[in-house]
Amino acid sequence: MRLYEYEAKKLFSQLKIPITSGEVAESKEQAKAFAEKLGKPVVLKAQILSGGRGKSGGVKFAQSPQDAEKKADELFSSKIKGFPIQKILVDEKLDIDKEFYLGITLDRVNYKIVILACPEGGVEIEEIARREPEKIKKISLDVDQKFFPFWGMSLAQWLGAKGENLKIVSNIVVSLFNLFKKYDAKLVEINPLILTKAGKYVAADARMSIDDDALFRHPELAEMGIEKRHEEGEMTEREKLAREWEIPYLDLDGDIGMFPGGAGFGIMGNDFIHYFGGKPANFMDSGGGPTPERLARMLILLDENPKVKAIFGARFGGISRCDDFAKGVVMFLKEHGLSKPMVLRMTGNMWEEGVRIFQEARKEHPEIFKNIEIHGIETPIEEIAKRAVELALLAKS
What we know:
Layout: H1 5-14, E1 23-25, H2 28-38, E2 42-46, E3 59-62, H3 65-76, E4 79-80, E5 83-84, E6 88-92, E7 96-107, E8 112-118, H4 125-131, E9 137-142, H5 149-158, H6 164-182, E10 185-196, E11 201-203, E12 207-210, H7 219-223, H8 237-244, E13 249-251, E14 256-260, H9 263-275, E15 282-284, H10 292-303, E16 310-317, H11 322-335, E17 342-348, H12 351-364, E18 372-375, H13 381-396
Parallel strand pairs: 14-16, 16-17, 17-18
Antiparallel strand pairs: 1-6, 2-3, 2-6, 4-5, 7-8, 7-10, 8-9, 10-11, 10-12, 13-15
Helix pairs in contact: 2-3, 5-6, 10-11, 11-12
């Protein structure tokens, strides 16, 4: 789960990592006011959950408050990688002498924490690693291993720090490591770490990603407004609603609503849809043994999605029984109704009982089943996926 730069900097400051004195603006008027408050040239940085904002025009410099207002208006009116800009960090423009890179991440292959340092900053570290790997110094530690200050001193020397600056840079490295461990991070990065012409080290940028499975250990983050979100891009309104309902859900860019019986079956179903020329509108997981109420809510997310043209449902009954699946769908149909064509297939635990529930409900309320095709084990899952793609095409024609 990625943090905004301004959020990461708040956490940096808690551990005494020197940061810039910026403020977050949500309008061009605020940007102008903050620039007036700083009383010097500023840099306006779009706050988005995506990399490469500098190359995409998300960073602008302003010489005056009026210029800051104009540049902020340009940013708020634009998008980066399709994401709208809703917040801008109005930061002081630094008088740069040198730029460096510091970062800590996980080596998932060797199960290590890796501390990285490079005497070049403000660049893509992946490109440096590919082109000039000798410029990167690494220290690898076991996940439960302590980080000793002399390692920080070693990295400070590698970055060219001398005299009193050796201790300053070493302390930044140690604090960055402590921050990484304290918040169960997957990545913390200062790129660039600036040495100003006045001789001060400042984290000009901050990137931080946290393991969202560990958020329950950090209620203080929620108090700061840092809650579960995507690694890249904001959550959609449906994704936020699904989170409230505790339904794992992700919006995609297709038009076939995916109503699976579990995560594995959902992944397979998405593959089938792609294979037959369609595009899934979402990924979803019902969880083990979902209640009828939960299944009904899953269908609400799909039926009320204007992008969805058809719904593909599949249940492989194991822990999650097919009769419960059928009860959830019938509950949804009676209470909500269905505006999209849907094709369903059930097999596994209690599938015959599930089919019987559907048959009885259809006899009682034939009008609510006019858009639904229901199949059992006799129909291959591939045929159901293919039919869903056909229904979506028919709905668009």
